[in-house]
Design brief:
The chain folds into four domains: 10-138, Nucleotidyltransferase, domain 5, CATH 3.30.420.40; 244-330, no CATH class; 416-616, DHBP synthase, CATH 3.90.870.20; 628-712, Outer Surface Protein A, domain 3, CATH 3.90.930. Helices cover 32% and strands 22% of the residues. The chain has 23 helices and 30 strands. The longest helix has 30 residues, at 314-343. Bound molecules: fe (ii) ion (FE2). Fe (ii) ion is lined by residues 140, 144, 163, 352-353, 381.
Length: 716
């Protein structure tokens, strides 16, 4: 597996960990280590056993269904322990990180502040506080460093951490018996800390670099950035903060009112010349990271914040995005080359939110001069859970790193069982039907469907950890069909139409289709499509001719690799368009129930769950008067009226969701009680509401498409 092949590596098999598998439970060691990213965005948990084997990694957002969810981790820890068949008393040690505040101090008062209703009661759950379990705490950048150190395919080199903001210097300097920061690490002879010159309320970690050999880490570089306001009131749009990640997030906040939409900014950068005919690069950043000069006026004078929907702003937005992207690449590459030259290091680990920037990552692979570059599939803050767990393991085992037996796998969540699928189907069978595959192989059916232009949701085995779906929770389509970009962006993902899609490419064929194809098993870097091939795969090549590739080997994911091979046999193209299986900006689906719900709520053509094929049941073309429409159970509704008492809208609540429906649809749901036939219902509406049958049928179809009504055909 190229750069990620290492004799060491965490062993986990794509299909071995079944939810609540009793066999697994019986065999499990009783000394688990938990790593947590807690009380902040992207809350996550990592579970290691006594040998350092990674049993589970997962993010809170997949369980809570709220994107980038943070806060307490009670439900997540319970989910993780269930997944590995363990209980709280099996946990030997927990290590956690939070970049906003010191957890040890927060826990001193959480009982009291929860009693005063400042926090939900789950904050004081045993699954969150983990009482009686030895607890460590790590500063932010040190936790990022540890997240990759044991899992890189080399045992020496440089670790560079770059993100929006790390821990505060003030808190890093506070004493704490079980609190660890990099300030106490040895300093490399070339260590340099950027002088803190500005006036500031406080200081936060901006960028850090370390030199490592085995588990021995030295400080190599540190830049604290000024924090203009108290840390608990910190600026959510990163308005005044000067780390590379914060500056990038400021641009993201400006364009999308979301500091965490940096991927959208990166995707927009290549469109600057197209959307702004006069585009010419104007630097926002100048100087190197040691003496960075920021054109704050340029950022503050940027026009029309948060008006994406007004097309006239797009030229200015794309110009801003392109300038920031270009400057980030220049500053980061120069720093990396400088660190390499000073230390003679051959290998690089790159982590922190900035390492999600696949365009930058591609240039680092090609231009920074390292022999090997490792970027894990969790470079953002979810990865801190891994770093904390690995650090705790080393503390318990005389600084030994977690034992590794195989390359690091992104498939570290739960593999759901056929029973889970059956339970989900039970809930949705009025709208979903399972296809009878007879003797055909599901992979052949799916490859053919994609070849024919269909879009398939592919759910298989253990869920991925990190922001990318890598073939176990993916939406797949034909890369040759340019129209797929518009169709998936608008009809399925409900996102901006310019956003590009990425290909999963058979590793052995990458160089036939892409230039400088470095191994990219986690879809973490962009490369250029070969000039003679790009026009064959328009759905996965961006405006600048680049593609964010996932290089796919049978070792990484045998079933997915096999599927792509079958598509290649039909199409001659050794890749599939792969985007994460989520709709409408929701988190990636986790369970079969999530998958079915998202499938029904989208224009996806087929759904595959662990080899079983599902289709949406169409609204019956021929309805007979004896059929019985049945409303979803246990709905409640509220009507909104104006001052004159006229009904303005109806809000329906069912299955924990809210739908806006019309008054007549509420009336329809009320009579769809399982007793009235279609004939009774149309007669009733004709007589009492003076509404024709066609209108009723049209509303009925609308309710059916939202799974608010099913149709029962009476037995003869
Ligand atoms: Fe971070």
């Amino acid at each position: 597996m190229g750069v990620h092949q290492r004799q060491l590596g965490v062993f986990y098999n794509n299909d071995t960990l079944k939810c609540c598998n009793p066999l697994f439970f019986a065999e499990m060691a009783r000394n688990l280590i938990l790593g947590l990213n807690q009380y902040t965005h992207s809350a996550a948990v990592c579970v290691l056993d006594t040998n350092g084997k990674m049993l589970f990694c997962g993010e809170k957002e997949r369980v809570s269904r709220k994107k980038h969810d943070g806060g307490d981790t009670a439900d997540l820890v319970e989910h993780a322990l269930n997944a590995v068949g363990a209980k709280l008393s099996d946990v030997r040690m927990v290590c956690a990180n939070n970049h906003l505040f010191r957890i040890d101090r927060f826990h001193d008062s959480v009982d009291w502040s929860t009693a005063l209703f400042q926090y939900r009661s789950s904050y004081v759950s045993d699954f969150n506080l983990l009482p009686g379990i030895e607890r460590l705490e790590l500063s932010h950048h040190l936790a990022h460093a540890w997240s990759a150190l044991p899992y890189a395919p080399f045992d020496n080199g440089i670790i560079v951490v770059a993100d929006g903001m790390g821990s505060t210097l003030h808190e890093m300097q506070m004493p704490g018996e079980n609190y660890f920061t990099d300030l106490s690490l040895d300093k490399h002879p070339q260590f340099h800390e950027v002088e803190r010159k500005d006036e500031a309320f406080g200081w936060r970690e901006g960028e850090s670099a370390f030199l490592f050999e085995g588990g021995n880490i030295q400080q190599l570089f540190k830049r604290f950035i000024p924090e203009p306001s108290p840390s608990l009131l910190y600026n959510y749009g990163f308005e005044d903060m000067s780390s590379l990640g914060a500056l990038y997030s400021r641009v993201s906040s400006h364009i999308f009112a979301d500091w965490n939409a940096c991927g959208k900014v990166m995707g927009m950068a290549p469109l600057a010349s197209k959307w702004n005919k006069d585009y010419k690069h104007q630097p926002i950043l100048s100087g190197g990271l040691d003496d960075l000069v920021i054109d704050w006026q340029r950022l503050r004078n940027a026009v029309n914040p948060n008006q994406w929907n007004d097309e006239k702003n797009r030229g200015a937005y794309a110009s801003l995005a392109a300038d920031m992207q270009s400057d980030l690449e220049t500053v980061m590459l120069e720093k990396l080359q400088d660190l390499r030259a000073k230390t003679g290091a051959k290998n690089l680990i790159f982590v922190g939110g900035v390492a999600l920037n696949s365009t930058l990552n591609g240039r680092i692979h090609r231009e920074a001069g390292f022999e090997q570059v490792f970027i894990p599939h969790y470079p953002g803050d979810q990865g801190l859970a891994v770093g904390c767990a690995a650090f705790a393991y080393a503390q318990l085992n005389n600084q030994q790193l977690p034992t590794q037996q195989q390359a690091l796998s992104p498939y570290s969540g739960v593999a759901y069982t056929d029973d889970d699928t059956a339970a989900a189907l039970n809930d949705w069978q009025d709208w979903i039907e399972e296809a009878d595959l007879e003797d055909t192989d599901v992979a052949d059916v799916v490859a053919q469907a994609i070849n024919d232009g269909q879009i398939v949701a592919w759910f298989d085995g253990r869920s991925e950890f990190g922001p990318r779906a890598l073939g176990n929770r993916s939406i797949l389509a034909d890369p040759r069909r340019g129209e797929m970009v518009e169709r998936i962006n608008s009809a399925i993902k409900k996102r901006e139409s310019y956003r590009p899609f990425a290909p999963s490419v058979l590793e052995e064929k990458v160089s036939e289709w892409f230039d400088d194809a470095s191994p990219s098993p986690y879809m973490s870097l962009t490369v250029q499509a070969r000039a003679d091939k790009a026009e064959q795969i328009p759905a996965v090549v961006h405006a600048d001719g680049s593609s964010r590739i996932q290089t796919l080997s049978a070792n990484d994911n045998a079933k997915y690799h096999d599927l792509v091979q079958r598509f290649e046999k039909l199409s001659g193209v050794p890749m599939l368009l792969n985007t994460s299986f989520n709709i409408k900006q929701e988190p990636i689906v986790e369970t079969p129930a999530d998958a079915m719900k998202s499938f029904l709520d989208s224009d996806l053509d087929l759904l595959v769950i662990n080899g079983r094929l599902f289709r949406q049941r169409k609204f019956p073309e021929m309805l007979t008067g004896s059929m019985i429409p049945l409303a979803a159970p246990n709905f409640t509704a509220e009507s909104v009226s104006n001052a004159e008492g006229d009904n303005m809208s109806v809000r329906l609540m069912v299955r924990g969701e809210t739908f806006d429906i019309e008054q007549i649809e509420l009336g329809l749901l009320e009579v769809c009680n399982g007793e009235n036939t279609l004939h009774d219902i149309t007669d009733y509406f004709k007589e009492h509401w003076d509404v024709e049958q066609d209108t009723i049928m049209s509303h009925l179809q609308g309710l059916y498409s939202r799974c608010l009504v099913s149709i029962i055909t009476p037995q003869e």
